[in-house]
TrEMBL record:
Residues 18-103 form the GST N-terminal domain. It catalyses: 4-maleylacetoacetate = 4-fumarylacetoacetate. Belongs to the GST superfamily. Zeta family. It comes from the Eukaryota. Residues 108-241 form the GST C-terminal domain. Keywords: Phenylalanine catabolism, Tyrosine catabolism. Pfam families: GST_C_3, GST_N_3. It comes from Ornithodoros moubata. Its cofactor is glutathione. Its EC number is 5.2.1.2. CDD domains: GST_C_Zeta (cd03191). This is maleylacetoacetate isomerase. One of its GO terms (biological process) is L-phenylalanine catabolic process. It is an enzyme of class 5 (isomerase).
Length: 246
């Protein structure tokens, strides 16, 4: 990570002092969600990769500079006008309020609640159980088993919900934050070799979303950020998912 001084300012968003947002992240999961939202809203931003793999206590994640951005030492973090916004859900909410067009939350209050329900299942109930920091406590096999259990439990619930809420996309026929959160998690499920056959609605939505240009751009940006030794493997996962579960 390049040397740069970051001061955490207090105050409110001020359009008159806008500078290009800076996204600190890694190619997987939560950062991917934010990249999709940035692409959907056509926001020009700068990206700084934070390497999450390496000895604990060393590297960019453990620098004093990054600690000032997020004391939890996690990504993503979006910096706007020297204001640091950690946590992907908080970033998505900020983007919706600061850049309201195109909308990624429905106008109808019940539809908005459904979007949040789907988001919470993925962001709060599923993703944390796949955090790589658990690997050292559980061991690789137990960690992989735990990841697959969390995903299958969540996807069983999501399949039932999406049968009722979905149109072309997760909630009706307009793209929302539910879709933004679904795609990276579905990709990760395939990475974990989860059998996706029981989730036809989810598979249909994933295929539809992968035809949306903003989602394609975000995936390419993520893949370009993948360490070289992982690129072929992850590209094969993406191809397999779309052909195995049409």
């Amino acid at each position: 990570m390049e040397e740069r001084q970051v001061s955490i300012r207090q105050g409110t968003h001020n359009d008159s002092m806008n500078t290009k947002p800076v996204l600190f992240g890694y190619y997987k999961g939560a950062t991917w969600r934010v990249r999709i939202a940035l692409e959907l809203k056509n926001i020009d931003y700068e990206y700084k990769r934070i390497n999450l793999i390496g000895p604990e206590g060393k590297g960019e994640l453990y620098s004093q500079e990054f600690w000032l951005l997020n004391p939890l030492r996690q990504v993503p973090v979006l910096v706007v006008n020297e204001h640091a916004i950690p946590q992907s859900a908080s970033i998505l909410e900020y983007l919706e309020e600061a850049y309201p067009s195109p909308k990624l939350m429905p106008t109808d209050v019940l539809a908005r609640a459904k979007v949040r329900e789907i988001m919470e299942i993925i962001v709060a109930d599923t993703h944390p159980k796949q955090d790589f920091t658990l690997l050292k406590y559980l061991g690789r096999q137990a960690w992989n088993d735990s990841c697959k259990h969390a995903i299958t439990k969540a996807f069983a619930a999501l399949e039932r919900i999406l049968k009722e809420t979905s149109g072309k996309y997760c909630v009706g026929n307009e793209i929302s934050f539910a879709d933004v959160c679904l795609v990276p998690q579905a990709f990760n499920a395939n990475h974990r070799a989860v059998d996706m056959t029981p989730y036809p609605t989810l598979n249909r939505l994933y295929a539809s979303l992968n035809e949306v240009p903003a989602f394609k751009r975000a995936e390419k940006l993520c893949m370009d950020d993948v360490p070289q030794d992982e690129q072929a493997h992850l590209q094969s996962i993406a191809t397999h998912f779309l052909t195995a579960y049409p």
